[in-house]
Amino acid sequence: MSDDTMMCVSYSGDANLKKSDGGDFVLVRSCSDECHPDHQPQQETVCKETAAELRDEMLFKQPESSHEGDCPICCLPHSINSDEATLMSCCGKSICDGCDYANMSRETASNLHHVCLFCRQPRPTTKEDYNLHFEKRAAANDPVALKRIGMKRCDTGDFKGAFEYWTKAAELGNASAHYNLSILYQGGRGIERDVEKEKYHLEEAAIAGHPQARRNLSGYEWENERFERAVKHLIITANLGHNVSVQALKECYKEGKVSKEDFAGALRAHQAALDASKSPQREAAEKHLAKNAHRIVY
Question: So what's the pLDDT on residue 9?
Answer without folding.
Answer: 40
